[in-house]
Amino acid sequence: MTTEATPTPGTGARRTPLSPARRRGSATARGRLPLTVLAIIASLISVFPVLWMVTSAFKTRDTVTDGRLIPQKFTFDNFVYVFSEVPFARYLWNSFFISAVITIVALLFHSMAAYALARLRFPGRETAFMLIFSTLLITAPVVLIPLFLVARQLHLLDSYAGLIIPAIFNAFGIFLLRQFYLSFPRALEEAAIMDGCGHWRVYWNIVLPMSRPILSALTVFFFLANWNAFVWPLVATTDPDLTVVQLGISSFQQQYGSNWNYVLAAATVAALPMLALFFAFQRQIVESIKTSGIK
Amino acid sequence: MTTSTTTRAVAVPRPAAKGRRRRLSRKHREWVAAGLFLAPDAIGLLIFVALPMVLSILLSFYQVSGFGSYTWVGLGNYERMMHDPLFWDSMRITGIYVLVLVPVLFCVSLGLGLLIKQRLPGLAAYRTALFLPYVISLVVVGQLWKFMLDDQTGLVNRTLRAAGFEGRSWLGDPDLALGSVIAVTVWVMMGYYMIIFLAGLQDIPKEYYEAARIDGAGPWTSFRRITWPLLRPTSFFVLLMSTVAALTGGLDLVFVLTNGGPANGTSLAIFYIYQQAFGFGEFGYAAAMGSFLVLIMVAFSALIFALTRGGRFDHDD
Fold first, then answer.
1. What pTM was estimated for this model as a whole?
2. Whether A204 contacts chain B with CB within 8 A
3. Residues B237, B242, B243, B244: is their CA dihedral positive or negative?
4. CB-based contact B203 A200, cutoff 8 Å
5. For B65-82, how does the pLDDT look when each residue is reduced to its tens digit (9 = 90+)?
6. Cα–Cα distance, A154 to A146 (Å, whole number)
7. Which residues in chain A are contacts of B311 at CB distance < 8 A?
8. Where is the ABC transmembrane type-1 domain (chain B) (predicted)?
9. Is B155 on the interface with A (CB under 8 A)?
10. Do B128 and A282 make contact, defined as CB atoms within 8 angstroms?
11. What ipTM, to 2 d.p.?
């Protein structure tokens, strides 16, 4: 952050000897003030509601709607209540377990498929790619009903497998990884093939380690998306032992709707791991989104 | 002697055969490897994405009663759909939702992208702040905004009243609820599309802007002549993604924020379909409406593709 902030005054200082440049520099500095104000306002609109939720979760029932940002009486009782009243730890564990398994398996499968589509020569490669790519148009809500029936037929409802397996397959990850593998230098693999390495060993020992940056970016992104998933778990599970955290807070709200202090405490607990993940891996998340826009 | 000739007869052609088999097998080995590498995802996509899509269309010709008995009804579900006022109401709401959400989201995120690109002091902090809502689940977002938009105690009305305005029933007024859902969706998604726009903007060579400035072009001219045309692939991508997402999305948020109400004012088509399937067990009817929605989505995607020429650079006109 500091490295990005420092160049601006630095270049300004270097420009001072040249008078036209200085005039331009000061003009942009003046033009920048309204833009900076705008950026600050937009940022506040973005962040303030989240901050409001988090601080309200530390208020008592009487003061939760008092309209103050900082709680007058700071209390942890709401969190204690949430964890003791419903099996919230179990919800968190379920979400963590499911998201982690989906992320690991999906990344392995997607990178394998992407490697084949980008690097191996076989008949029908372009057709295979187009077929996989076209599944991107089939969005999850649209196939929710038949997916439910398929899962029921396969006895996947009300099981971890049912929450995990259908969530693995997503052409988006294949597409991003394929783009990445297309830019790989060919020489390395070819040398390995000449040495008699099989394709699996080339993939496992060369390609996979080289794709660490994009894989780490996608790990964060996949985990986030699955932690936040709501509709499929809602449809696919009724067993309370399988309740994921999003489902947990949703039914918690239906039960304790008017007690905002409890509802917001539960919501804060559900959001906190993702906020932490975001602050820790912001660069990776942003990078993975950036690559998704570039063709 | 016979043994030696046979061994020689066998021994002589062997290297050639081995060589040929090896040459063939190297190519074939690549084919086999490709098949094995592709198999897990290909099978999974087939079972959990493609098959449900086909099933959805098949299912639309059946009436599903209770749990598991299917009766062929031909186009019955589609006929019912044509005469279902609630469905067309939900389509109308979806239409407004898409036609407002997509342009607003486009303009806001492009604006933010352009703003962040200005290399203002504290740039990284703004980017972080603007992206933050995206990482929060839609369930939490729904709860948080329900709290913010509460008629009596919500911060929004409290602020309005403090400023001398009337508080409004943001989620309780049928005329306002859809707008509130759209506003919250923009709030969540703007940071995501901002990042995509930012990536596109950073791909435009700085020299173009330098040259334009030397030629005396103002900010508006450089935007119209440089940024807008060169940003076309990104714009296409954002437009396509957000339209597809809007046509079939919004389910999570509507669930938590309004549950389709008030007076079905936020009952998006996808929400109505969900209700019919999982609320009333009308899987066949829901599948018919879902297939219709997919048809519309494909038509919209084709339209966007045609209008933006697939986001290609176009130097002909």
1. 0.86
2. no
3. positive
4. no
5. 766 688 899 999 999 999
6. 12
7. 295
8. 91-304
9. yes
10. yes
11. 0.85
